[in-house]
Write a structure and sequence with these properties.
InterPro entries: DNA_pol3_chi, PolIII_chi_sf. By secondary structure, the chain is α/β, with parallel strands linked by helices. The protein has helices spanning about 15-25, 40-50, 115-125; strands at about 1-5, 30-35, 60, 70-75, 85-90, 105-110, 130-135, 140-145. The chain is globular and about 40 Å long.
């Protein structure tokens, strides 16, 4: 399992989720986007419709039907009704169910930095756990040590 920690010190999750979802889609993967914040889920939904210079990213919201057909599914819970192997934790909260995915993207801001550190440390004790830390450098994402 791989966990990518993304420190959001410039852009909000709504700006980062479309980038990650598009990259996953290009890699042939489905994505589950999880946030316990209903307003954030709505902002992510809107961002996926209007994502950058390319066409919108096809997606759906859990509970609206046809979840199993969605390449990107937005949900309050980490249950992959779309059979996603990648999960984006957009609200910065680690969920134990995330360990069932092949790849996890934990997006967190300064307000959750300490929780992310604790999660990093805890996950480092697990076998077969690959951890990566990403930070924005100007307008690009760079992996940091």
């Amino acid at each position: 399992m791989r966990v990518d920690f993304y420190l959001l010190d410039r852009d909000p999750a709504e700006a980062v989720v479309p980038l990650l979802a598009r990259a996953a889609k290009q890699a042939g993967e489905r994505v589950l986007v999880v946030s316990g914040d209903a307003e954030q889920r709505m902002r992510i939904d809107q961002a996926l419709w209007t994502a950058a210079s390319e066409a919108f990213l096809a997606h759906g919201t859990a509970g609206e039907g046809h979840e199993n057909r969605q390449p990107v599914l937005i949900s309050a819970e980490p249950a992959a009704a779309n059979k996603a192997r990648f999960v984006i934790l957009a609200d910065g909260k680690w969920r134990e169910e995330s360990a069932g995915f092949d790849r996890v993207f934990l997006l967190f801001g300064e307000d959750r930095r300490q929780e992310a550190r604790e999660c990093w440390t805890a996950l480092g004790k697990a076998e077969a756990m690959e951890r990566h830390f990403w930070k924005q450098d100007g307008g690009k994402w760079r992996e940091m040590g």
